[in-house]
């Protein structure tokens, strides 16, 4: 279900691994001019500068764009987690803004809960929000216990971005997020390309005369999940965007819900105990 009054647009452009500066800027510009209003990046993606360039060159006003980025990936923080302080959190936020070339972003995620003092982290991000550096605070890869700690510190957390697709539907986590009023945003919504190998999805796509990604994204949207699929070429950008207009039948939704193959593609050594 969609959280009431959620500020997060349902479909966005993901930019993970889109590190060619010209291609990245062009894909962002193209997506915005096609109709997207949600752009997702991260400190660790090493592409915030071209993402910002794409936003500036698009014929779309900045105030109409929902721009999200992420800080505190374990590979981007120097030193021990025990040494992290509020000044470092704020510096990481400011670094994102500087690379993007913006005064503020609409959503700032904590990229991984890792071993951070989450009370310190979320208190620092709440201060950044109060000071106008970020419009909203989100979390990524948080399990319910992490999310509850975040909400106890800052009830204003608005979204949890997690791996979510037909092979990892995250039903229990989605239910919990709905209970506490936190939106779910799906990264890797196409299961790192594995949706093309799922017979149930291929059959629905063939019967409807559309692509497997379009069916997959339409399913996520029907669940009330926002999604940020990566796409670089205009054809894929437009095809993903068309998922907003595909209405799946109850039988088709049930077929996808019933896929019995389960697989998680992102499980690094700093991940939570899923």
Strand content: 5-15%
Mean pLDDT, as a whole number? 97
Distance between the termini: 22 Å
Please tell me what the overall shape is.
Answer: globular
Trace the largest sheet across and list its strands: 1-2-3-4-5-6-7-8
Succession of helices and strands = EHEHEHEHEHEHEHHEHH
Helix/strand/pairing category: alpha/beta
Radius of gyration over C-alpha positions, nearest whole angstrom: 18 Å
Low-confidence stretches: none
Describe the protein in words:
- This protein is an alpha/beta fold and 274 residues long.
- Helices cover 40% and strands 11% of the residues.
- The chain contains 10 helices and 8 strands.
- It has helices at residues 21-34, 48-57, 86-100, 118-130, 144-153, 171-180, 199-208, 212-222, 234-241, 250-257; strands at residues 13-14, 38-40, 66-71, 107-110, 137-140, 159-163, 183-187, 226-227.
- An 8-stranded parallel beta sheet has the order 1-2-3-4-5-6-7-8.
- Helix 1 (21-34) crosses helix 2 and helix 4 (118-130) crosses helix 5.
- The model has no long low-confidence stretch (mean pLDDT 97).
What order do the helices and strands come in, and which of them pair?
Layout: E1 13-14, H1 21-34, E2 38-40, H2 48-57, E3 66-71, H3 86-100, E4 107-110, H4 118-130, E5 137-140, H5 144-153, E6 159-163, H6 171-180, E7 183-187, H7 199-208, H8 212-222, E8 226-227, H9 234-241, H10 250-257
Sum up the structure in keywords.
eight-stranded parallel beta sheet, 40% helix, 274 residues, alpha/beta
């Amino acid at each position: 279900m969609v959280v009431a009054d959620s500020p997060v647009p349902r479909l966005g452009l993901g930019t993970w691994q889109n590190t060619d500066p010209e291609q990245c800027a062009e894909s962002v510009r193209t997506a915005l001019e096609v109709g997207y209003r949600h752009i997702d990046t991260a400190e660790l993606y090493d592409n915030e500068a071209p993402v910002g360039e794409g936003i500036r060159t698009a014929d779309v006003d900045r105030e109409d764009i929902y721009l999200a980025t992420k800080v505190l990936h374990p590979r981007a923080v120097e030193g021990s987690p025990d040494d992290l302080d509020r000044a470092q959190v704020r510096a990481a936020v400011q670094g994102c803004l500087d690379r993007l070339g913006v005064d503020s972003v609409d959503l700032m995620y904590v990229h991984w809960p890792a071993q951070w003092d989450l009370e310190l982290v979320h208190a620092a991000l709440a201060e950044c929000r109060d000071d106008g550096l970020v419009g909203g605070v989100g979390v990524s890869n948080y399990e319910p216990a992490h999310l509850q700690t975040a909400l106890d510190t800052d009830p204003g957390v608005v979204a949890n971005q997690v791996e979510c697709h037909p092979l990892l539907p995250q039903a229990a986590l989605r239910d919990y997020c709905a209970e506490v009023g936190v939106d779910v945003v799906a990264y890797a919504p196409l299961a790192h390309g594995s949706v093309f190998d799922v017979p149930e999805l291929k059959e629905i796509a063939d019967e409807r005369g559309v692509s497997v990604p379009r069916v997959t994204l339409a399913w996520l949207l029907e669940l009330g999940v926002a999604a940020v699929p990566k796409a670089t070429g205009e054809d894929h950008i437009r095809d993903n965007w068309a998922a907003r207009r595909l209405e799946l039948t109850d039988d088709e939704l049930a077929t996808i819900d019933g896929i019995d193959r389960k697989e998680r593609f992102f499980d690094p050594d700093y991940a939570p105990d899923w």
